[in-house]
Amino acid sequence: MPKAKRIFFQEFLKAPRSVASMIPSSSFLERRVLRASELTQAHVVVELGAGTGGITRALLTMLPTNARLLAIEANREFVENLQAADDPRLQVVLDCASSITRHLQEQELGAADAVVSGIPFSTMPNALCTDIINGIVESLRPGGRFVAYQFTERVAHYARPVLGEPAVEHELRNIPPLRVFTWRKVQPAKAGTGNSVLQA
After folding, report:
1. How far apart are CA 94 and CA 60, in angstroms?
2. Cβ neighbours of residue 75 under 8 Å, at least 6 residues apart?
C-alpha cells in the first residue's frame, strides 16, 4: 500500500469521525474540485483538512507560479506528511480550520481567492461549524469561492444562512461518493438594496 494511503487508513482507524474516509480522494473528485475552484488566476488559496495531500497536490498543479496555498490540517501525522512536499508555494500549519483568518493575517497573505474544504461538517460540534463558516466568509475576497466536498449536505445547513444557496455537483467515482458544494462571494449590497452577501 502506498505511504499516503497507509497513513490515511491508519488515521481513519484512530479517529473515524474526524478523518471520515478510509482512503484518500479519487482523481475524479480532484478534477471536479479543481473545476469548481477556478484557480487559474488565483493568488491565495486555503485548503481546510488537507489530509495526506491528494487535493493539495492537485491544487498546486493548477495554481500560478506566484500563488500561495495555505493548508490547515488538525492531524499531526497528516501535517508531517504534507510538510515533506517540495513546493515553495505551499505553507502547512497544524491547527483547527476555525483559525483560517488568523493564519492568513500572520502569513500576510491577504484575502483568499478560494477556500477548499474536505473537513467533515457532519461530525463536528455545531458551534465549531459556525465558527469555521464565519471564518471562511471573512477570509474570502469578493468574487472568491468556497468549495466543500462532503458525504452529507450538513455543510449547507451551516453555510446557507450566511452564504445563500450553493451550486451542488455529485461525484460518484469516489469512495464514498461525495457532493461538491460551491459558493461565490459577491460584493455587499448597497444601502437600501438588500443585504445579500454570497451566492452560488
Report:
1. 19
2. 11, 15, 18, 19, 51
When mean pLDDT is compared across 63-67, 114-118, 196-200, the lowest value belongs to: 196-200
pLDDT classification of 1: cutoffs 50, 70, 90? very low
Q: What one-character DSSP code corresponds to residue 108?
A: T
**Cβ proximity of 131 and 161 under 8 Å:** no
For residue range 115-166, what is the model confidence (pLDDT) as tens digits?
A: 999 999 999 999 999 999 999 999 999 999 999 999 999 999 999 999 999 9
DSSP, residue by residue, 124-152: S-HHHHHHHHHHHHHHEEEEEEEEEEESS
| Cα 183 versus chain centre, distance | 12
Closest CA to 13 of 56, 64, 77, 63: 77
Place of cell 492568513: 104
Instruction: Please report, as a single letter, which amino acid is at residue 11.
Output: E
What is the CB-side half-sphere exposure of residue 35 using CA atoms within 13 A? 12
